[in-house]
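hiii, so i know i said id send this last week but things got crazy w the move. better late than never?? heres the sequnce for the chain we talked about at the cafe, plus the structure i predicted for it. fair warning i was half asleep when i ran it
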Amino acid sequence: MTYHSARETLKPAPITLPTYAAEDLTKGADQAHIVLGDQTYTLRITRAGKLILTK
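okay and structure toks below
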């Protein structure tokens, strides 16, 4: 007979996160502003296709 601990047999339910295309956020441009509370951040898509988020 094989026994398993609860840690081995119980796995947390996967978390489904909202997913957004960067191009949708920037509406086809290379930058967008994102507001969190009273702070505004700039999301930029580089020529190399990387994302940069700055205050």
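btw The beta strands are 31-36, 39-45, 51-54. thought thatd interest u
miss u guys!!
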